[in-house]
Amino acid sequence: MMMKFTDHAGLTEEALDSGGPTREFLTLLMDSIKTKRVFEGKDNAKYLSFDSEAAEDNEYFHIGRMIAVSIVHGGPGPCCLSSNFFLYLNSKVKTFEAPVEDIPDDEVKRGLLEIKNATSLSKLQELTEKYSSMLQTAGCYQFMKTLEDKKKVVEDYIQWYFIYRNHVSIQRFKEGLATLDFVNALEQHPTLFFLFMCYTETKLTTDAVENIFHVQFSQPGSTNRQAEAKVLSYWRDYLLYLEEKEASPSLEDVLMFETGLKEVPPAAIQPQPHYEDFQEAMDYGMQNSPGFGLP
């Protein structure tokens, strides 16, 4: 992967990338795709949705490719897909289940909930006629013979809504995920990649931030060692302070500043940051950029 960063004047910036700029770019990229028109649903449980202009611009393929490239190069995943949709992507048996509540269209959701909650056959038949146009569009309109028939109708409609009507979009998305053979890894290790693709509620801790870095002290008893121990103590106190308070900056802000990531990826950060890398980058910056550090 190759990218160029430009300054406010549009000129290309020359710099050594030891991982930070790449991770920052990929983090911003994953943040941006979450709001694209190809997705619909809750912020942390999104599904693909067909959009004619997006299909014409091949966006489904490109977004799949962006996700694959980001994860393969050590960046984050989108962390926003519905777990039900993710399981469908990795299932060889193409059955699909999702709760009615996941449907973003309020009118459709209301109709399905009424059918699902019908308590008598006569009421179910009445509702089937009321929403006949909606059910016919999905090809699941039928005469209700028993109260139990409502379950299959609701399940069939949900499968049509999320899967069948978006079939072409899903195929192009998967073709994009095949970039760098990522889709095969996804199918072989679904539990691992679930953490990249779907939202999981994890709280960043001081220990998690500290464990990213390997501390290299000077010789015991030296003046430098004493100063380094004091700096490390201040650093840990500051992290604890951020963890306890509920305001900015947060531990996530610190992690983004340090690594270009908002959270520690499941595969950890490779390579692990070292002082030598920082020193090399600073030396390069000062030697090749006159005025480095000035506002």
Characteristic terms for this protein:
single chain, 295 residues, mainly alpha, two-stranded antiparallel sheet, 3% strand, Hect_E3_ubiquitin_ligase, G2 M phase-specific E3 ubiquitin-ligase-like protein
Model description:
This protein has 15 helices and two strands. It is mostly helical. Among the domains are: 100-162, no CATH class; 206-288, no CATH class. A two-stranded antiparallel sheet has the order 1-2. Strand 1 (39-42) and strand 2 form a beta hairpin. The radius of gyration is 25 Å and the shape is elongated. 22% of the residues are buried. One of its GO terms (molecular function) is ligase activity. Keywords: Ligase, Transferase, Ubl conjugation pathway. Residues 1-33 form the HECT domain. This is G2 M phase-specific E3 ubiquitin-ligase-like protein.
Itemize the secondary structure elements and their pairings.
Layout: H1 20-33, E1 39-42, E2 45-48, H2 52-56, H3 59-72, H4 83-90, H5 106-116, H6 121-130, H7 132-137, H8 149-162, H9 167-177, H10 182-188, H11 190-197, H12 206-210, H13 223-244, H14 251-259, H15 275-288
Antiparallel strand pairs: 1-2
Organism: Labeo rohita (Indian major carp)
Keywords: Ligase, Transferase, Ubl conjugation pathway
GO molecular function, one term: ubiquitin-protein transferase activity
